[in-house]
Design brief:
single chain, about 140 residues, mainly alpha
Length: about 140
């Protein structure tokens, strides 16, 4: 996809206002799986919007890997260590705090230009945010 096509794609939203509202409600309830189900159901009638569901699924999978692989970040004596960087940004995604997650990923991309994983996650997050916002927002 060329730069113009990419820009047009990122300007798309989920087709129905009701679907966007359903996704936002699930996110406000911290129900990522329910939000993903709402996105998937919204794109059933609009296959061109399927990349939104795929982007959100990638973000959810990344948050799940963070939790399952690292679990609570603990030192050997059982005390909790501070979470930072990509892990903190993913935790913000998991909590539905997309503003904070976006700020975190943007900071990482600026500080670590070679971190392509964080750059991809930021792109996915921006795509999802744009897809679910209302034009009047």
């Amino acid at each position: 996809m060329d730069a113009h096509g990419t820009l047009l794609f990122f300007q798309r939203r989920l087709p129905k206002r009701r679907a966007r509202r359903a996704v936002r409600q699930r996110l406000e309830a911290r129900d990522l799986i329910g939000a993903l189900a709402a996105i998937r159901s919204a794109v059933e009638g609009a296959p061109a919007a399927a990349p939104f569901a795929m982007a959100f699924a990638r973000l959810i999978a990344a948050t799940e890997r963070l939790i399952s692989e690292e679990g609570p970040t603990r030192s050997t004596n059982g005390s909790t260590l501070p979470l930072e960087g990509p892990g903190l940004a993913l935790l913000q995604v998991r909590m539905g705090n997309f503003d904070e997650a976006e700020r975190g990923f943007r900071r990482i991309v600026v500080e670590r230009a070679a971190d392509h994983v964080s750059r991809d996650r930021l792109a996915d997050l921006l795509m999802v945010r744009r897809a679910i916002e209302d034009p009047g927002d």
